[in-house]
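Dear support,

I submitted the protein below through the web form. The confirmation email said the job was done, but the results page showed an empty box. After a refresh the structure appeared. I'm attaching both so you can tell me whether what I see now is the final result or a partial one.
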Amino acid sequence: MRVVSLIASATEIVAALGCRDSLVAVSHECDFPPSVEGLPRVTEPKFDVSGTSAEIDRRVKEVLRDALAVYRVDAERLKALEPDVIVTQDQCEVCAVSLADVEQAVCDWTGSDLRVVSLRPDSLADLWRDIRSVAAALDREEAGERLVEELRSRMAEVADRARRLRTRPRVATIEWAEPLMAGGNWVPELVEMAGGTNLFGEAGNHSPWMDWDGLAAADPDAIVLMPCGFGLPRVIEDVEMLSKRREWRGLRAVREGRVFATDGNQYFNRPGPRLAESLEILAEILHPEEFAFGHEGTGWIRVSEST
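What the results page shows now:
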């Protein structure tokens, strides 16, 4: 079976199902497991991904305002690869190639038994469904059930331990720094499971925009930065920008050194198997006296100790 994955989380799902060798191409963002690095890339962004958060946000909005796709699919290369299965998504047109992009790329294919699997993960329950959908497309249903049960059990163990703790810090997760956006979808679930009280964003709903007045009024006990698509070094650049704002400096979490930068690109932004690690990261951050999974320094850092 020949599989093309056009979203990083799907690539991780395919690999976790034991089908890494079936992958013949991936998206420009796919980088895990490391063995996929050498595979052909069949997508690319249509905008410059460098610059500040505000600049990137403006470019994306300009593309969408003109009713254009944010990403480009190399239709000719995709067809030449002769895939049996293409995995894409229709959850967010900004995050990755969408179902509409794929449908346009393959609209003139004939004589093909191609199967397109589109994922729509808005919550943890949707992740389990998506894993099963990919597993079914790859004829790996039993492996899909094992993977779902393994991840659910692992995360339930963390949640059970966190539930017994006496304190529940009030947490603001920030998925974009300029303009401010809170973590939504599965992130509020992870915060609650890790023993926190989520202040912004609702489980199962898209990430909402925030404003500084609302953030100041909530005055969270902890702030967890997880900008979409950013690794730790890039998140620190956002911290330096945020630290110049008067409102930021007045927040309790900032004053008391409870601001944390995470590798959102590798963990929280990818609705795949590593959401289990994302939960562990949050548990370490919120309750260091109880949890130590070894993610500090790679998956997250305390900002006050890094700047």
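Response: this is the final, complete result; the empty box was a page-load delay. The mean pLDDT is 91.
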